[in-house]
Write a structure and sequence with these properties.
It is a single chain. The protein has 589 residues and is α/β, with parallel strands linked by helices. The protein has 23 helices and 17 strands. The protein has an eight-stranded mixed sheet, with helices on both faces. The two termini are 41 Å apart.
């Protein structure tokens, strides 16, 4: 994602930076392979510097020009020897054009063959590697051989490519190891007239005009970062002259402008945009310099308001500095500053936020509210690699959590509070239905995550099917306020006489409820039942998981040694474990 604007996406500037970029501060490494039927060596330094700016040091294997199938179908190729985490596949319309023109037979059949062969490439990768595949679609051609009548001719080039893109989407939708890189959307935005550089294709088989290669690189970076949990979770929005026109405290409810047309239309459009984000799992919060009741009045009474009070997970309106209020919102939601976007029409407030909380994403808004949605959309802030039913009800989950906190404030004894929640917990082995949410939690959890190992859906599926080595569990929690959904993942590994904890993570919204105590009881119970004498766990520190530094110690584990990356290993003797007190009932249904 772009955190402010697109001004840094300059091909000459990024190349200049790549020659002297200091990667020593990068806290994460990643191995990328790039395969294309165009020549894309210029893409490599762009990917490296853009990932480096996000704290990721990228080692990149660039396959030979037009060698996608040669590399993928050869199990001894340099591609598999490199063992990438991500395989980026870029297919150029220029290369496809020649196949289309040379086809003397049924062009509709040719389209089916192209899509089928692409799927075969993905499936072969899935068998031979655990890498995530990032597959481009095709930029629609500028040729219209029939003019406007093109769309009525199924095998005319333009609609033929459009249908091929649809076939690629359909095949990718059913494959967990494949994500799509919508290059056609990039080209459409800048215009195909500018995107293509036919002279550079003729001379050196360039994928696109070099000026737009940074956009391709940034799109890949957005997908890659989202796949490892770098996602926006919350939009914090100002009110006056941002969510509506005018100042509610001065103008009153009759004086603020929100409408489906006319002067208030830009504000209604922004609200519709935010509501759609809320529906797909982005939490909405308000941060306004206002009296609370005054700020809430439009949400409750204005007939043209698109957003209502129930759509806002955390509503903060007071006269305190906005960075202080952002800190309060962060604590209420228990998320990181780097997963929050702050939207405010005031240049002063934006700059204050950048200086006070530099991890918060603060987009630069244009002066004209008509361009707010365009400016936010350009940044691709909300890239994701999954979407689940739990995402649909995320705002509801946070509101339910707020009610739990209110109950907590009214109870003096923590045990009494936990019993009053009437919690029910489920702990089961991975199953196909829950795999998307399991993988999503693994990718996104940073704070309560003991090793921060990232596994995609395909890797989770492999562990689910492995009855010999892995014992992977998920946990779900509900209480009298609602269903928290799938909130924890524990992956155990058999290595007799020890049972190893490969992964242990939990959503921070259920902290201090006893979930980890219940889970540890079950892990030790499993170890004892299957003849393991010890349980061994690891803690690998990151910039965000200090909260679980002493996790094992509280359960009576003994520290063993320190390994690479300051990893500490801990051992529990099963026979000496004292079961922890819990305040929840098991749900066996």
């Amino acid at each position: 994602m772009l955190t402010r604007d697109s001004s840094h996406l300059s091909y000459p500037e990024l190349l200049r930076q790549s020659r002297s970029f200091d990667y020593s501060a990068c806290i994460r490494g990643m191995r990328l392979a790039v395969l294309s039927d165009a020549a894309v060596p210029q893409l490599v330094p762009l990917l490296q510097v853009l990932l480096g700016q996000q704290g990721v040091r990228a080692d990149i294997h660039l396959a030979e020009y037009d060698s996608i199938e040669l590399e993928v179908f050869n199990d001894r190729s340099a591609l598999y020897a490199f063992a990438p985490d991500v395989m980026v596949i870029l297919n150029a319309i220029n290369a496809l054009r020649l196949k289309y023109y040379r086809c003397q037979g049924d062009r509709l059949q040719l389209r089916e063959e192209v899509a089928t062969k692409m799927a075969a490439v993905w499936d072969t990768i899935g068998v031979r590697s655990s890498a995530l595949v990032v597959q481009s679609n095709f930029v629609l051609p500028y040729e219209r051989h029939f003019g406007n009548f093109d769309h009525k001719v199924p095998d005319a080039f333009h609609p033929w490519v459009a249908a091929l893109n649809a076939a690629i989407v359909e095949r990718a939708r059913g494959r967990a190891n494949v994500l799509l890189n919508d290059v056609d959307a990039l080209a459409s935005y800048v215009g195909r007239k500018h995107w293509f550089d036919e002279r550079m294709w003729t001379l050196c088989k360039a994928f696109c005009a070099f000026d737009y290669l940074p956009m391709v690189a940034q799109n890949i970076v957005d997908i890659v970062l989202a796949s490892v949990g770098r996602v926006v979770k919350c939009v914090v929005v100002d009110l006056d002259n941002t969510l509506w026109g005018g100042v509610i405290g001065d103008d009153g409810i009759e004086g603020v402008t929100i409408s489906p047309s006319g002067e208030g239309e830009p504000f209604a459009r922004l609200q519709h945009y935010l509501l759609e984000l809320k529906k797909r799992g982005i939490v909405l919060a308000v941060c306004s310099k206002n009296d609370p009741e005054t700020a809430l009045e439009p949400f409750r009474r204005h007939p043209e308001m698109v957003l209502r009070e129930d759509d806002i997970a955390v509503f903060v309106a007071n006269w305190q500095p906005k960075p202080d209020n952002l800190r309060a919102i962060k604590e209420a939601l228990n998320i990181g500053f780097d997963s929050m976007v702050f939207v405010d029409d005031s240049p002063f407030e934006r700059q204050l936020m950048r200086e006070s909380l530099p991890d918060v994403i603060v987009p630069e808004l244009p002066d004209d509210p008509s361009d707010y949605v365009r400016a936010l959309s350009e940044l691709n802030l909300f890239e994701t690699t999954s979407f689940s039913d739990e995402d649909r009800r995320r705002a509801e989950l946070y509101r339910e959590n707020a009610r739990r906190q209110q109950l907590r404030l009214g109870v003096s004894d923590i045990s009494e509070y936990l019993r009053s929640l009437d919690m029910r917990i489920t702990m089961k082995r991975f199953d196909a239905f829950h795999l998307p949410r399991i993988a999503q939690l693994i990718q996104r959890s940073n704070q309560f995550n003991l090793t921060t190992r990232r596994y995609n859906v395909a890797e989770c599926q492999a562990m689910m099917s492995d009855g010999e080595t892995y014992v992977p569990f998920y946990l779900k929690l509900s209480d009298k306020f609602g269903d928290n959904g799938l909130i924890s993942v524990i992956i155990l590994k058999r290595e007799a006489p020890s049972l190893l904890v490969d992964t242990w993570l939990m959503s921070c919204r259920v902290l201090a409820r006893g979930v980890e105590q219940y889970a540890m009881n079950q892990v030790v119970k499993f170890a004892k039942a299957h003849g393991y004498t010890t349980v061994v766990g690891s803690y690998i520190p990151t910039a965000k998981n200090a909260m679980v530094k002493n996790f094992y110690e509280q359960f009576g584990f003994e520290r063993m040694d320190e390994g690479a990356q300051r990893e500490t290993r801990w051992l529990l003797r099963v026979a000496s474990y004292t079961p922890q007190e819990v305040w929840m009932e098991e749900n066996h249904g």
